Each structure stands twice: as structure tokens, then as C-alpha cells.
Amino acid sequence: MNIKIIVWILILIYYINSHSREYDKNSISRLVRFSIILLIIESGLRHISVGPDTTGYYGSFYSVMKMDWSSVLAGLFVDKTEFRDPGYNIVVKLFATIIPSWQIFILACAVLYYYSLGRLMSKYCNSCTSVFLGFTLILALFDIIALSGMRQMITMAISMLAIESIMDKKLLRSVFLVAIGSLIHISCIFVLLFIPFVYMREKLQHTIHLFSLFVFPLIGIFSRRIVGFLAGFSANDYYMGYAEKENSVVGYTFAAVVFLTSLFIFFRNDSIYLRASDDDVKAKFLKPAAVLMTLSAPLILQDGSMIRICQYFSIYLVITIGNIVDNSRNRRAEYLIMFFFLLFYIFTSQADYHFFWQTVSGYTYTHPFWGF
């Protein structure tokens, strides 16, 4: 079952009913809320067969639940591969102590993730059409985050809660949130790269964006060395394995898409911060996100796992692209072109989906769904 098509059609129906109030903030917020409820259901009620990492996380959930607290907390102090990102085990142990259910756990994680994303979209998207495009983009490119990687789903939620604190120069609060996220997945620490942009003029940000486009191929060429350096910085042998893998062929497609998207944003720079009305709040993090996305995307050429770093920045495309197109002279034509390509990807997707109550050959739940 291609659930992406079903979710997209339901969002389309709600969007059609909201389109007459295109720039009304209440209509935008209601469309966001409706859409994230559907995505929470998709993520939180999925079968363990959905997503490449879900089965592993399912097993680790009950393994951690059986551990005593001293063993779980030991991960904060010992230097072993199996104790990488010890904060995730602490989150699992704390949750499972209260509610010993994997299904409720992933449902709670989905609520946290989509609440954080929906909050930003409600605040910074300028129109119902830009919201609709944003969720189409999520279904086409980003929903794998909420259908597989539990650790990164939590840390991305934390990073999205921290982003406004960073842009508002509330650095102690933002560093605290990122530190918590980094214990769950070390990659969250890269969110701190937003901080230097707080003190830059927009003209300097634009210059750095141009520089990032020029060095894009160089980062790809030296991606092995860069990944090796980052792995050494993490002080964990597990991550050093990323630098030892062969270059990823699939990564070239992703890197090319990011580069072309970044180029589009660069030449339409003046449209990022234009607002539909004076009441709208300026999304100061969109330009830095585009720059950091451009600098991190070539690392995927070394290993596909490096997409985790890029996603902390590329996720904001769900806001950026719509805001740019909203201020275009060819608004309707550009929206149609983007919807065409994204829908082609959604409707040709081979990703299979099952709800947790369905029977899937080769997969067996070893614990009660709800833990009771």
C-alpha cells in the first residue's frame, strides 16, 4: 500500500476547502494541523516492517526496558561502540518505565517531531499553497525520517524547537537544547553552526552562500577525509566506519538535487524574506539553513548515513521554497512545475506500508502492542 498517495489526496481535499482563504493565518494553521495529524498517524501506527531501521529500534526498545538503570546510565561515562548516543537509551528507559509499549513510544515521538515542524510551518509559511507544497515535499523526500530513524526524529524535533532561540540570540537555552539532543544523536551538534549567522548581515550570508556553491564539488572530492575528521571528533569507533566505506552512487543524485535547489534559492534570495503581510514574522533561519545544507550535502557522496547531517538544514526547504514561489511573478506556473515533479516521485514510490495490526510475512511482534 502506498500510503503517501492516500495522505496526499486527503491533504489536497482539505487544501481545496482552504484555498479561498489563501493568506489567512487561521486557515494556514488549520491546514498545518490537519496535515500533521495525518503524518502522525502514518508514523505512529506503522508496522515494524516499515522503514529500514524500525525493526532494530523495536528490538532495542525492549532490550533497554529490561536493563537496570545503572547499566543505562553507564553509557554516559564509558567509551564503547554500543554506548554511542547514550541519551536515546535514557529516553527509552524513562518512557518504558512509565508506559512499556513500543507502539505508544513511536506515536509519542511522531507527535513531538511533527509538532515541532508544524509549529514552524504555521508561523512562517505565507499561504495555504505554500503549506500544501511543504507537505508534498515532506511526503516525497522527508517522511523517511519519521518512518525509520527514531534517534534522529527526536533530535530533529529538539533542533527545530531550538532554532528560534538561536536566531533570537538566546544562546544558553539553544546550547542546552542542542546538548540534550547531541546525547541522543551526536549529529545534533551541527545545529550550533547556525549561531555564527546570528551576527552576520544578510549581505554577508549571501556571499557565504555563493562561496558554498563554489566549494560544493571540493567538499565532495574530499568527503572521505572530512567524514573521517568528523568521526574522529566524535571519539567513537562506530562512526569511524562511515569514513571507511566506498563512495555512494545513490548520493550523487541527492547531492545534485541539493545543489540545484541551493542555486535556485541563491538567485531568488530577495524573495526568501518577503512577507505576505506586515503581521508575518521574518524567518531569519531560512538563509543560514540553505547555506549549511549546501555545505553538508556533498558528504553523502562518502556515505549515505551522512544525510543525517544535511537533514537538519534541508528540512527547512518545506518553508523556503513556498515562500520564494509565493513572491514570484510566475507563481502559478512555478507551483505547477514543482507539484508535477514531486507528485511523480510520490506516485512512483515503491515504498510499502503496513499498519501495526496487519500481518506481514517474516515479521512477528514479540510483545503486546500496547504493553499491557
Fold blueprint:
Blueprint (H helix, E strand, L loop, with lengths): L2 H16 L6 H20 L9 H13 L2 H6 L11 H13 L3 H23 L3 H15 L7 H18 L3 H14 L10 H4 L3 H20 L1 H12 L2 H7 L6 H18 L18 H11 L10 H8 L2 H10 L4 H17 L25
Helix pairs in contact: 1-2, 1-7, 2-6, 2-7, 3-5, 5-9, 6-8, 7-17, 7-18, 8-9, 11-14, 11-15, 12-13, 14-15, 15-16
How would you portray this structure in words?
- There is one protein chain.
- The chain has 372 residues and is mainly α.
- The protein is built from 18 helices and no strands.
- Helix 3 crosses helix 5 and helix 15 packs antiparallel against helix 16.
- The longest helix is centred in the N-terminal third of the chain and has 23 residues.
- About 4% of the residues have low confidence.
Give the structure's gist in a few sentences.
With 372 residues, this protein is mostly helical.
End-to-end span in angstroms? 29 Å
Total helices: the number is 18
Estimated helix fraction:
55-70%
Query: What Rg is obtained from the alpha carbons, in whole angstroms?
Result: 21 Å
Percent of residues in β-strands: under 5%
The largest pleated sheet is described as: none
**Helical/strand content category:** mainly alpha
Keywords:
372 residues, mainly alpha, 18 helices, globular
